[in-house]
Amino acid sequence: MTEIRKYLEEHKKEMTDLLAELVAVKSVQGEAENGYPFGREPAKALEIMLKSCENSGFAVENVENYVGSADFGESPELAVLSHLDVVPVGDDWSADPFILRYDEKTDKLIGRGTIDDKGPAVASLFALKAVKELGIPLKKGVRLIFGTNEENGSADLAYYRRKRELPKMVFTPDGEYPVINGEKGMVRTRFSTLFTDGTIKAGTVINAVPNRCEFSVNVPLADGVKAYFGTVEGTAAHASIPENGENAVTKFLSEIQECDGFNNDVLKTLSKLFPHGETDGKSLGICCEDDISGKTTCVLSMLNTENGRIYGAVDVRFPIKCELFNIKEQICGKLRENGFHIDYCEGTEPHYTDGDSEFVKSLNKVYERVTGEKGGCICIGGGTYVHEIDGGVAFGAEMPGKSGNMHGAEEFITLEGLLLNAEIMAEAVIEICG
User: Measured by CB atoms within 10 angstroms of the end CB, which terminus of the chain is less buried, N or C?
Assistant: First the structure.
């Protein structure tokens, strides 16, 4: 056992106690108040973390309850970026999600935020404490950064960057190992048009494959009107991996074409633009591919009627070698030429950090040394906390092929995973700053 691992084993109760205190804070984004840009609960979680950092001997700063930081050493050149806000809990929890539970049989620490991202934040603090208290010398300073708005657009980090300069190397333990160095670009589009032939209700969020479509559609016939109604079931999936689900909206659009007398132009057009089973945007003319990040993904994720109009939403993730402007122009142009009004169309460019950079190679070296597993680089369709940071990467906290039910019920991190993350982060600090 290394000295670092021994230190962490000896302090694991302190780690879980701090995690329990943080989990108890319902740090979902709330109403902005004077001095509390994202509500009082995210600010409370930040206060707890900064107090623990200060008690550990680090120099702390709270930047107006947007972001907090803890420094070890002068002029930090490495930052570990995590966040203390969480998503709402939803249903299907077996117990209170804001009370940390430990299941000894499975080694799971269960509670909202345990893997995303309060557990990794605690691990980052104890990683730095281990380096400090074991007297391991560093040539470069280190900064821990704790945000409070990652789950709702990262306005916290944008504000912080206007006020402070980030260290030149940044990683976030808010993804998976080994190293996430590439993230696809994203476009989200909302469109609408007139629709008076019934009601449709499908999808509640833009970034997920919808698993249910409820409908009541009227079909004019020679001798009157026939109403088709019912529910189409699909399989939910994250919009970045639509191939893992079955889209209930496009399934409905496909099936309604087979109804006797069906002739609604709006639904026919949508079915042509978003064929059931197509996930690469080919029919919109946006399908592209590169050898780093793979193919475009395209999901018609919402379709709802209200006040005589039909409203749709599309989530697109496009490869690193494509450009945001071209993708937006093609999507909007194709929808407009087919009679739809564009209500909203915004996105972000892809993010990519060279996998051969010294920073990435150092992180992979540490991962291999600590875990005994082969390192490497990953490109994902989702976005992490470093998406807008040049040279930033995600490093942890989930192990390859493992899931802590991030954003879901019974979210967890194992106790071993908490300790292992802290060990990896400590070794990364030593490798890069020692």
Answer: N
